[in-house]
Amino acid sequence: MTPAVSPVDEFAERMEKCLPAGFSGGIGLAVSGGSDSTALLHLAHSYATSRDIRLCAMTVDHGLRPEAGGEAKKVAEQCARLGIGHETARWDNWDGRGNLQNQARAARLRIISDWAKSNGLGVVALGHTLDDQAETVLLRLARGSGVDGLSAMADRRQSHGVTWVRPLLEFRRQDLRAWLRANQISWAEDPSNDDPKYDRVRVRNALKVLDDIGVSPERLAGVASRMRSAREVLEMATQSAARDCATVRHGAVELRLGPYLGQAYEVRRRLLAHALRWVGLADYAPRQASLDAAMNALESGQTTTLHGCLIMASGDQCLIAREPAGAAGATASIGDVWDSRWHVTGPNGVGLEVRCLGETGLKSCPDWRDCGVPRAVLLASPAVWSGDRLVSAPLAGLPRGYKARLVRRENDFESSILTH
After folding, report:
1. How far apart are alpha carbons 236 and 232 in whole angstroms?
2. Which of 54, 229, 322, 404 has fewest C-beta within 10 Å?
3. Percentage of the chain surpassing pLDDT 90?
4. What is the pLDDT of residues 354-363, one digit of tens each?
């Protein structure tokens, strides 16, 4: 009989597959103190020790349970025994409105990504397991998700300037807990994991029943894997369509409507959603109903706004540009990033700041028509101001020693269609 692969060896194999090609540097670990992330901590320690890789750990205390502070301290103690640097961050910004779990999750990603970048960590490992994957598939099925939603969690993805990896995604929680017990490693139990007011807990309980009729966590994870394969095919078709009908200039996307409208509906939907995300630097695509409405407006030649972007169809062209109203409140110092999109450089001085050019600024640029930049793009472009006085408008023919460049390279538009 072939001996079973030990969790340590299996983790090493999974981690090697998850890490980006040519990886070097340190790895951040998101550790809450529960069984999954505790297993991640100890398995990653074994992996990193044998390869001389630096590890750092972060615990986010959401301030929602009185026990959370003590659990974070126990994580810190475990990290100290392992020789792993550890930090705890507290999030207490929930105002009691909206979906608590979604807001906490989004805050956690922001906090951990900022921490990782400040510590020179390009990769952060998360403790999601096969059980989490199965629950995610079932949750998204209940919400009517399509191919992307049912592909669930990837073992590697880019977001917030960090590569997130999930080396435990093929591990069952029960197996990890058995390994922790065998090694006399304790973990914290979060009582909210048994609270039926949360959708994920109800799904977890439903899985116990579904398992009896063959809808097991392994089967659901298999569905996710097949959906990811289908998603890859659709993404490649969308990338091919982008080559045929999309041009990126000055941070805006121009679609040639003839070849665009000749694409299959799903490819058109994906290309428009990607353009909106790319122009607006959004982490997620718009909701399906909103995207459908925008597609209908585009195809009927109407102008509309969505996701912080302006969608203008005219003749055989469609322009997708940053919405001026969305950029109007953004400010930055010379040399800093403005509106998350532009980097403006040039002479600095007292009272100077980068703001949106807008209608007022454009009136002070008599030669803007000679620049070849659409008016809608210029209205949301960066300009240097001293109070109410326009100093420079680099994209509108009034540079005066200042330059503006996109933070993102324009040729990233096509390559970023593919999920990595």
Report:
1. 6
2. 229
3. 78
4. 999 999 999 9
Question: CATH for 232-420?
Answer: 3.30.465.60
- The helix or strand, by DSSP H or E, that contains position 123, with its residue range, turns out to be strand 123-125
Residue 386: alpha-carbon gap to chain centroid: 35
Q: Which of 155, 92, 83 is nearest to 126 (CA)?
A: 155
Residue whose entry in the numeric block shows the structure tokens 């909210």: 192
119: its two tokens: 């510590």
Helix (H, G, I), strand (E, B) or coil at 324: helix
Question: What Cα–Cα distance (Å) separates residue 67 from each residue in 61, 92, 381?
Answer: 10, 15, 48
Q: How far apart are CA 175 and CA 4, in angstroms?
A: 12
* Parallel/antiparallel/unpaired status of strands 156-159 and 123-125: unpaired
Instruction: Give strand ranges (E) for 280-357.
Output: 304-306, 309-314, 317-322, 337-338, 342-345, 352-356
Q: Where in the chain is the domain with CATH 3.30.465.60?
A: 232-420
Cβ–Cβ under 8 Å, residues 249 and 410: yes
Q: Please provide the CATH number assigned to the domain covering 7-215.
A: 3.40.50.620
Whole-Å CA distances, 343 to 16, 313, 335, 349, 404 = 36, 28, 6, 17, 6
> What single-letter amino acid sits at 178?
A
Between CA 217 and CA 228, with CA 223 as vertex, the angle to 5 degrees is 130
What would the 3-class secondary structure string for 129-166 be? CHHHHHHHHHHHHHCCCCHHHHCCCCCEEEECCEEEEC
* Tens-digit pLDDT profile for residues 106-141: 788 999 999 999 999 999 999 999 999 999 999 999
List the beta bridge partners of residue 355.
383
CA distance 56 to 162: 14
Q: Is 121 helix (H, G, I), strand (E, B) or coil?
A: coil
